[in-house]
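Team,

Forwarding the record for the chain on the shared tracking sheet. I've put the sequence and predicted structure together so nobody has to dig through attachments.
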Amino acid sequence: MNEKLTRLWATKTKDDEWWSSFVTSPLAIALNYLVVDIKWLTPNLITLISFITAIIASLLIVIGGSENFVSAAVLIHLSHVFDCMDGQMARYRKATSLSGGFYDKLSDQIQVTLWFGAVGYAAYSQTNDVIPVLLAFTGVAFYSLRGYVKYVTIYTKMSQDSSFLEKLAIQDSGAKKEDAAGLGFGVLANLRWFFNEQRKIIAFNEGVFIFMLSLALILDALVPMLWVFAVSQLFYGLARGMQRGRQIEHNRKISFEK
């Protein structure tokens, strides 16, 4: 088996989000195979390229029109492929950095806001109804709340226990997920993994957004998608908040899934 491909496959996040797991992340590995040894092409530069691609996609959505919607859908996927590539490249080169991880997560959050803000505007332009704008705002707000709750929980726990982060790191290292499929595994193992991955679609995280946003743009079905986005994020935002509150109140072991 090709050693370079094996090393690249090992950089794939073991518990990727739904669409990332079997579409954008493998595509990122394929592209990295071609460019990972180009020294001037750094992970941070790929993060920037991903962000610029996301901005262009947002502008095309705002401009509107079927052709622009389809182009935006392609660019959204391409942006997410780049988003997977930067971390893979950093791990392959053993050049991960705190600043790189920070800018990657920051750009991810901004991209979601830009995409759904643009879709809310485009749907408003089509319908002359303010409801799509409110749906986009609700979805983005409560998606952000899912992440905010996580960090408020960490802050709250640290105020009680200064060694909380150290304990959390030990907990995470002990819960490291092993490969169950991929290179070196048989067809049946990969099929089992593929079907098990489909359960992640109900998490309605960024990997799911990439798929449903792109599909809605191609089908020009923006308003139904915004309803799904808003309702799912409202549910998960409130549910995560109540879950963390109960865990803190009862001093339970905390898992930090967003």
